[in-house]
Structure formats: C-alpha cells, structure tokens
Amino acid sequence: LSGWCGCIAGARSEAEYLDFLSEAGFVSIEIRPKKVFFASEALLEMMFPDLPEADRIKLKGALASAAITAVKP
Q1: pTM beyond 0.70
Q2: Out of 11, 27, 33, 37, which residue is the most buried by the measure of CB atoms under 10 Å away?
C-alpha cells in the first residue's frame, strides 16, 4: 500500500499532463481514462491520514489510470 500511495502522491492532473506534453512539442494529444478508482472513505483515511476529511472526500473518483497518446512532429 505504501508503494501505491507514493505513486499517486506525485500524480498530476489531466490539465498538467496536457501542458507538459504541449510544452515538450507534442500535438494530437489524447488522454483516455482506462480505470477510475473509487476508494472507500476508510481506505482514503488510511492512505491520507493528515488530509482533512473534506479534502479526502474530493478524492473519490479522482484517481484513474489512463492511456496517453501524442505525436511529436
């Protein structure tokens, strides 16, 4: 669980990924969600014990894996 938490702790928003890829010169960028994770409140509390409850609630459905494709001309 700690490895998974560490992985998502550095995750970026979709908008940030789009900006990073655009700034790197990619075009025709597509981000397609593959799986959206709906963690229980208990799991979110275990993963983010220092995060206020109101902020933890915002994470429900906010964690996802995605297929990202882009073209570098």
Answers
A1: no
A2: 37
